[in-house]
Amino acid sequence: MANLSDLQPLNHPAFNKHKVQVQIKRDDIIHPIISGNKWRKLKYNIQTVKQSSSVQGVLSFGGCYSNHIHALAFACFEQSIPCIGIIRGEAEYANNFTLSWAAHWGMKLHFVDRKTYRRRYDSDYLAELQQQFPFYAFIPEGGSNSLAIKGVSEVITELIQQTTFDTLITPLGSGGTLAGLIAGDTSNQTNHKILGIAVLKNADYLKEQVESLLPELAKPHNNWHVLTNYHRGGYAKFSPQDASRIIEFNRVTGVNFEPVYSGKMILAFLDLLDEGYFSPGEKIVLLHTGGMQGLGGMIERGIVNKADWPMPEQVENKINQK
Ligand SMILES: Cc1ncc(COP(=O)(O)O)c(C=O)c1O
């Protein structure tokens, strides 16, 4: 299997100071739109739908700025698969950066209030939706299902061909990405450590959630940890200092991270280095999970400015083709 993404050395004075060797797995540049963990999670989901003669389309769930919704809409567009997004929020959000693109690529947006959206895992609600859309395959929020786990596990297959490492770090939201990495690391015995940096507050429940997503064979793996103290105030929250630290890190390393997922992983990593979490000589791989499209909505809302947070050229170019 060819490697989907490069593994690049990452250089920063903090790494020299703490004598660690750091590499970055560039899943963010796998594809101009379906980047990072979205590509990995959607790969087998889309393949399965394409191969099924009874499935006519795909339905999934997400917030108004969802990376998953954005990527899914484009993946379905490319494969000529009809798709529906059940979106938390009001119809006025349809014009925002993320959703206007999703609609442009043909996704039908169905807005639901928060109360209804909370039912997205309830069997009665899903049965109602299935009645309404009988020949649609349902993909959960964030794309995290067993097919996604299979797709993400291939990151490890690639990494093992590309390098040797002690520790692998990923941002953690719904748990599918971390679960996929754990599942793929069948070399549990070789002492790889896998860390998930929770990007949301009160995330202790995520450990159980990751466990529930693991395939049976991976359940005994105990080489992973969920770190819950690096959320910076909650989902999509970050202080001006946090933002400055990420911008500076981007400048020094030449790789762009955004402040919701990958940037929080970077801040956590820098803090963990200062806390003496890693041993001198440790070989660390950071997984860049993409999500750079999220900057579009943040720029639009004035939360960040474009000069400090450039979108990757390939995202901009693709977007300018609208
Ligand atoms: C860019 C990006 N990175 C990381 C994550 C976290 O992945 P997961 O939800 O699988 O834990 C997400 C959310 O799905 C994301 O959009």
List keywords for this structure.
alpha/beta; Rossmann fold; six-stranded mixed beta sheet; four-stranded parallel beta sheet; 10 strands; binds pyridoxal-5'-phosphate
Polypeptide structure, described:
This protein is α/β, with parallel strands linked by helices. It is 41% helix and 16% strand. The protein contains 13 helices and 10 strands. It has a 6-stranded mixed beta sheet with strand order 1-2-10-7-8-9, with helices on both faces. A 4-stranded parallel beta sheet has the order 5-4-3-6. The longest helix has 17 residues, at 146-162. It is globular, with a radius of gyration of 19 Å. Pyridoxal-5'-phosphate binds next to helix 2, helix 3, strand 7 and helix 8.
Concise account of the structure shown:
This protein has 322 residues and is of the alpha/beta class.
Associated small molecules: pyridoxal-5'-phosphate
- Mean pLDDT over the full residue set: 94
Strand order of the largest sheet: 1-2-10-7-8-9
Under CATH at level 1, the class of the largest domain stands as Alpha Beta
CATH architecture call of the largest domain: 3-Layer(aba) Sandwich
CATH third-tier fold name of the largest domain? Rossmann fold
Low-confidence runs of at least 5 consecutive residues: none
Query: Strand-and-helix sequence, N→C?
Result: EHEHEHEHEHHEHEHEHEHHEHH
Integer count of domains: 2
Radius of gyration, in Å, reads 19 Å
Instruction: Report the portion of residues in β strands.
Output: 15-25%
- Give me the number of helical elements: 13
Distance between the termini: 33 Å
